[in-house]
Amino acid sequence: MSENCEIAGEVFYHLERKADFVPDYTILVRLSFFNEGNIWNINLSDAEIHHENDIRKFLKNLLKDPHPKPVTIKKPSDERPRALGIPVDAPANVVIVLDTDTAWRFRKGKPAITAKGDYGDSNWGSWHVDEDGEPVDIFPAGCKIAYFSVANRPALPNPHAVQSFNFHLELQQEDRRWVEIIIDPDVPEVGGEDFPSKLRILQKASRPNSVVRVI
Questions:
Q1: What is the mean pLDDT of residues 116-137?
Q2: Of 25, 183, 176, which is closest to residue 99 (Cα–Cα)?
Q3: CA gap 91, 96 in Å, rounded
Q4: Number of C-beta neighbours around residue 62 at 10 A
Q5: By CB atoms within 10 Å of each CB, which of 84, 90, 126, 137 scores lowest?
Q6: How does pLDDT run across 158-170, given as a tens digit for each residue?
Q7: In this structure, what is the dihedral angle of CA atoms 140, 13, 85, 180, given to the nearest 10 degrees?
Q8: Mean pLDDT of all residues in the chain?
Q9: Can you tell me the distance from the alpha carbon of 9 to that of 136, in angstroms, rounded to the nearest whole number?
Q10: Model pLDDT, residue 84
């Protein structure tokens, strides 16, 4: 059972690994951002599915090849009203990569990923990734890759079938100050069967996986 802490309304998972956790695959999603005047547009890519389940090996290869070819793409569900979502239908490591063209980073000194509720042992860990592709537990400045593990989900209509998270980022302003922003996807944002279960490939048409905010 993972030990969770709640700080200022955020629930985060300690940086431990579940000893018997074996992911079916690795999911890679990419965050990008642009603003035009007073409009912010944050985009989350469709989920890139990779058969590599050794997270350290995957991360090291990712640094060598930032755009590895996925075996398939999973698209957000048209049935979900949420703006941002990551479809997961089997045990998986979920890797989040920030667009390198934007002056932003995962927040320094605190976890990059927190949950909006205590989901027990459904998820494990929240790691920053250093420049050598190694998971680290010290939350350094400048990190643009982070990941966590999804171990299981109940089926709908269980309220924990879809779980809400926060990605905590710092965006550099024109005066070079860093300002924290929060992006809140649902993981997974598709319902259906509980898992661990057999991998199911989603065939639905993609909907826009983005948030537009007027500031």
A1: 86
A2: 183
A3: 16
A4: 20
A5: 137
A6: 888 888 888 999 9
A7: -40
A8: 80
A9: 24
A10: 83
Q: How far, CA to CA in Å, does 190 sit from each of 16, 53, 193, 196, 213?
A: 27, 22, 10, 15, 24
Give the pLDDT confidence of 54-103 residue by residue, as tens digits. Answer: 999 999 999 999 999 999 998 876 665 556 888 888 899 999 999 998 99
Whole-angstrom distance, CA of residue 119 vs CA of residue 31? 24
Burial class (CB in 10 A: 0-12, 13-18, 19+), 99: middle
